[in-house]
Design the sequence.
């Protein structure tokens, strides 16, 4: 809510380094938290502000703090897509935070098409095949949002081509949104076009686009 936000939150979100520095020097606590569990560090990361994030961390901000709905600064950094910011945060926070089972940095990075962020998280040991009930795997998210480069990178880095959301595979997701490039990539990496989801539907059953139908039929 707006009522419990502090000037520190606003300066961090807007990337205003000098006012932020001044407020901290005046004794405003770096870990000020809103009723929703949002800290100034959350805000700096959401805005993609590296210098503000660095300053807050130097003043002892908790890089692993989770908001009321399980959002961490790492999640916000991945949403922003700033790899320098993500690299900085990864020195101070864990990719294995329990909150990431609710709001996962790698899933949001894949959904937003931030390939460099996905690659970085994987290099720090985040699971490429982590499946969340509501959104599936990172590969499934990337297919749903037609993030071609992200799909390619995940497959090259070893993501399971059949692992999606329950029985719904990444190929189902790609066909459903008409992502011909994603379909081609998945098939190249061994995706099964005849695999049925929980409703008994195959990717071929979902295909309405002629070029996608041809890809599936000739695979």
Sequence:
């Amino acid at each position: 809510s707006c009522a419990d936000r502090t000037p520190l939150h606003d300066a961090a979100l807007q990337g205003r380094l000098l006012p932020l520095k001044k407020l901290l020097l005046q004794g405003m606590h770096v870990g000020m938290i809103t009723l929703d569990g949002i800290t100034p560090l959350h805000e700096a990361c959401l805005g993609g502000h590296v210098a503000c994030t660095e300053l807050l961390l130097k003043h002892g901000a908790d890089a692993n703090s989770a908001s009321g709905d399980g959002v961490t600064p790492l999640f916000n950094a991945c949403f922003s897509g700033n790899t320098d910011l993500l690299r900085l945060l990864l020195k101070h926070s864990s990719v294995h935070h329990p909150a990431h089972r609710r709001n996962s940095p790698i899933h949001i990075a894949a959904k937003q098409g931030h390939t460099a962020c996905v690659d970085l998280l994987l290099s720090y040991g985040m699971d490429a095949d982590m499946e969340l009930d509501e959104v599936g795997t990172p590969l499934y998210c990337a297919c749903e949002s037609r993030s071609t480069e992200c799909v390619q990178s995940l497959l090259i880095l070893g993501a399971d081509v059949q692992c999606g959301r329950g029985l719904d595979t990444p190929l189902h997701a790609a066909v459903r949104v008409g992502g011909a490039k994603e379909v081609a990539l998945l098939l190249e990496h061994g995706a099964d076009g005849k695999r049925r989801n929980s409703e008994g539907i195959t990717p071929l059953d979902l295909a309405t686009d002629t070029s996608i139908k041809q890809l599936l039929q000739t695979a």
About this structure: The chain has a mean pLDDT of 96. The first helix runs from residue 7 to 14.
